Amino acid sequence: MENYMELKLPAESKNEAFARNVIAAFCVELNPTVDEIDDVKTVVSEAVTNCIVHAYGYKGGEIKLRASIEGKTLHIEVEDNGVGIKDIAKARQPFFTSKPDEERSGMGFTIMESFMDELEVVTNASGGVTVKMNKNFSNE
Amino acid sequence: MIESKLVGTTLYIGLSGELDESSAVYIRSKMDALFSAGGMKKVVVEMSELTFMDSTGIGVLLGRYKKLKAMGIPVYIANPSGSIDKVLSLSGIYGIMPKVDFREA
Fold first, then answer.
1. Closest to B56 (Cβ–Cβ): which among A39, A49, A115?
2. Fold held by A3-136
3. Domain that holds residue B57
4. Considering only CB atoms, which chain B residues are within 8 Å of A106?
5. Mean pLDDT throughout A95-120?
6. Chain A closest CA to B62's CA: distance in Å?
């Protein structure tokens, strides 16, 4: 592992912008294109929003954001200690939302899957969820 | 964050900054207030100054689309930046809110 970082932050919506700017800064050494930076910022925003809205139901909690770089690959993990996801396969389907009354698009996982090269959603021993994502960068 | 202008019967809504969970409530209520004020037969959401949007923004747009549809008013999206265009395309939103090229005179 050539570089890594770990961040703990409260599950508050003001931290979405903070988390995505942290990841943008972290991946600078990969010489990312503008599109690659935008992709990574968007997926971190999706994962962190999921923690705030779904895992903790707006009541707050702690989110862990971890990232590492190996070669040209960026690994990202977003971990919560919230209520968990009952049916992960269903949650990952486009347009599925557990909160249909709240104008949620249900596109979060679809965007993460589409903007990254790999996506894994894991239930932790504590009952919370960790989203693990990898992206291979193009630049030299 | 949000500006608006009624030109004839077209309501132009200019979004700027970042549209995510933290700004969604504000943008939603501002847009709904504009719709309640009325006077428009068409709505164009202009995005050239919007620098970030995630799927929370899609939810906000879909909610506004439903309100306008009930009023019989079509809504269009203009000038999204690259990453926002990708999010919008992936969500299939252009099927109901077509993308138009609009430049202010």
1. A49
2. Heat Shock Protein 90 (3.30.565)
3. 2-100
4. 55
5. 93
6. 7
The B residues from 76 to 95 touching A (CB cutoff 8 Å) are: 82-83, 86-87, 90-91
Mark yes or no for CB contact B21/A53 under 8 Å. yes
* CATH for B54: 3.30.750.24
pLDDT higher than threshold 80 for residue B17: yes
Tokens of B48: 């050239």
Per-residue tokens: A74: 């960026």
CB pairs under 8 A between A and B: 67
Residue B105 lies in a domain: no
Question: What is the rounded CA–CA span in Å between residue B78 and residue B14?
Answer: 9
SS (H, E, C) A27-61: HHHHCCCHHHHHHHHHHHHHHHHHHHHHHCCCCCC
| Residue A1 confidence class, pLDDT cut points 50, 70, 90 | low
* Residue B7: φ, ψ to 5°: -115, 110
CA distance, residue B8 to nearest chain A CA (Å): 30
